[in-house]
C-alpha cells in the first residue's frame, strides 16, 4: 500500500500483514499529484504559518522561499499549530525546520510529518548565525540570564559553557529577543539573529556565537494540496517493515539496484505503538521519473506500508 497521505492519526499493527487504514492505489495517488507547483514566483499575499515571530529563522526561511514581501506570516508558538493551520486551511503553506547541520534532525517535525495529512513541496536552507542580544547600553559582564529556543541553545553550547549564565528555553529566538527588549533589564539577553536586533532595537553583545561556523538549518515547505513541482529532483517518504530478519536490507535494496542515492535515512518510533518503528528516507530523483516510481512500487512490496511525503527541489545554502 503506497500512501501519499495518511489520516490525522492512525494505528499500525505489526502483528499481521494488514494495516489499519484503507489501501490507496499508486495510480490514484499519481492522479492526485498532477497539480503542478511552479515555485514561489508570484505568490504575493500567501498565508504562511511559521513557528515563531518575525525575525525568527523560520521567518527568514519563509522570506527566502516566498520572496521578500511575498507572503503573510502567521506566527505560531508550537510546531503542532503550524500543521493545524495548514490542515485547517487557515494557512496555505507552512514552513517547518527539519534538520540542522550541527545538531541533526528536528525529531518533532519528522514525527508530525508522519502523522499529519500534509505534503512537502519545497525546501530551503538558512545559514544560522547566532548573536547574543541585550538591551541598549548592556555589556557582556552585565548578563546573568540568557533566553532562546532549545535548538539555538544547543548550537551555542561552547560559547555558553564558558560563562556562568543561567540559560532559559523559550518558544523561539525572535520571541525571546522581544521579551528581553520589553523587560529592559541589562541582566537579560537572548540568542537570535542579528536581524532581530534591528527589529527590537537591541544591542549586539557578541556575533557568530554558534559552535560551528557553517551552521545551517534546513526547512520543509508544506501544504495540504497535492502539488508536484516541475523541477523536483528529490523525494521523501516513510515506510515500515515487518519484524523479520533482513527486512530493512531488502527494502533499501530497491534503491541500490537502481543506483538511487540516499540522502537521509532515520528510524523514528511510532507513537502509541511502543517499540515499533518507521523509517524516514530521502533520496535523489523525482516522481516525474519512471525509475523512482518503480523503486517505490517495489518498496511497497517489501514493506507493510509506504507514505510518500512529496517531491521537491533541493536548494543550496545561499
Tag the structure with descriptive keywords.
D-Maltodextrin-Binding Protein, domain 2; 318 residues; six-stranded mixed beta sheet; 3 domains; 27% helix; single chain; alpha/beta; Alpha-Beta Plaits
Secondary structure layout plus pairing:
Blueprint: E1 2-3, H1 26-32, E2 35-37, E3 46-51, H2 57-66, E4 71-76, H3 79-88, E5 93-100, E6 104-105, H4 107-115, E7 119-127, E8 130-134, E9 145-148, H5 150-155, H6 157-161, E10 166-169, H7 173-183, E11 188-193, H8 194-200, E12 203-206, E13 216-223, E14 227-229, E15 234-240, H9 247-256, E16 262-269, E17 277-284, H10 290-301, E18 305-312
Parallel strand pairs: 1-18, 2-14, 3-4, 3-5, 9-10, 9-11
Antiparallel strand pairs: 5-6, 5-13, 7-13, 8-11, 8-12, 15-17, 15-18, 16-17
Helix pairs in contact: 9-10
Report on the architecture of this protein.
The protein is α/β, with parallel strands linked by helices. Helices cover 27% and strands 32% of the residues. The chain has helices at residues 26-32, 57-66, 79-88, 107-115, 150-155, 157-161, 173-183, 194-200, 247-256, 290-301; strands at residues 2-3, 35-37, 46-51, 71-76, 93-100, 104-105, 119-127, 130-134, 145-148, 166-169, 188-193, 203-206, 216-223, 227-229, 234-240, 262-269, 277-284, 305-312. The strands form 4 sheets. Strands 3, 4, 5, 6, 7 and 13 form a 6-stranded mixed β-sheet that branches. The protein is elongated, with a radius of gyration of 21 Å.
Strand content: 25-35%
Structural class assignment: alpha/beta
Care to count the β-strands? 18
Query: Outline, from the CA principal axes?
Result: elongated
CATH architecture assignment name of the largest domain: 2-Layer Sandwich
Query: In CATH, what is the homologous superfamily of the largest domain?
Result: ACT domain
Biggest beta sheet summary: 6 strands, mixed
Class of the largest domain in CATH?
Alpha Beta
Poorly predicted ranges: 4-32
What fraction, in percent, of the residue positions are helical? 25-40%
End-to-end Cα distance? 38 Å
Amino acid at each position: 500500500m503506497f500512501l501519499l497521505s495518511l489520516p490525522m492519526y492512525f494505528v499500525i499493527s505489526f502483528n499481521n500483514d494488514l494495516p489499519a487504514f484503507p489501501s490507496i492505489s499508486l495510480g490514484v495517488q499519481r492522479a492526485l499529484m498532477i497539480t503542478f507547483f511552479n515555485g514561489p514566483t508570484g505568490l504575493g499575499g500567501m498565508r504562511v504559518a511559521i513557528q515563531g515571530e518575525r525575525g525568527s529563522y523560520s521567518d527568514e526561511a519563509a522570506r527566502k522561499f516566498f520572496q521578500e514581501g511575498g507572503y503573510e506570516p502567521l506566527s505560531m508558538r508550537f510546531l503542532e499549530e503550524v500543521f493545524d493551520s495548514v490542515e485547517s486551511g487557515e494557512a496555505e503553506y507552512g514552513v517547518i525546520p527539519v534538520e540542522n547541520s550541527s545538531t541533526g534532525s528536528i525529531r518533532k517535525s519528522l514525527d508530525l510529518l508522519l502523522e499529519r495529512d500534509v505534503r512537502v513541496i519545497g525546501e530551503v536552507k538558512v545559514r544560522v548565525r547566532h548573536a547574543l542580544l541585550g538591551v541598549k547600553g548592556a555589556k557582556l559582564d552585565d548578563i546573568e540570564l540568557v533566553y532562546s529556543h532549545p535548538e539555538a541553545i544547543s548550537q551555542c553550547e561552547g560559547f555558553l559553557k564558558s560563562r556562568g549564565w543561567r540559560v532559559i528555553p523559550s518558544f523561539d529566538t525572535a520571541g525571546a529577543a522581544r521579551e528581553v527588549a520589553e523587560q529592559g533589564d541589562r541582566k537579560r539577553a537572548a540568542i537570535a539573529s542579528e536581524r532581530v536586533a534591528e527589529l527590537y532595537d537591541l544591542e549586539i553583545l557578541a556575533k557568530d556565537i554558534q559552535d560551528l561556523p557553517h551552521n545551517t538549518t534546513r526547512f520543509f515547505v508544506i501544504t495540504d494540496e497535492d502539488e508536484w513541482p516541475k523541477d523536483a529532483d528529490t523525494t521523501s517518504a516513510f515506510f515500515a517493515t515487518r519484524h523479520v530478519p533482513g527486512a530493512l536490507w531488502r527494502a533499501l535494496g530497491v534503491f541500490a539496484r537502481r543506483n538511487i542515492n540516499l540522502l537521509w535515512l532515520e528510524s523514528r518510533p511510532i507513537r502509541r505503538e511502543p517499540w515499533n518503528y518507521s523509517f524516514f528516507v530521502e533520496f535523489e530523483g523525482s516522481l516525474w521519473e519512471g525509475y523512482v516510481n518503480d523503486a517505490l512500487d517495489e518498496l511497497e512490496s517489501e514493506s507493510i506500508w509506504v507514505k510518500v511525503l512529496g517531491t521537491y527541489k533541493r536548494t543550496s545554502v545561499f
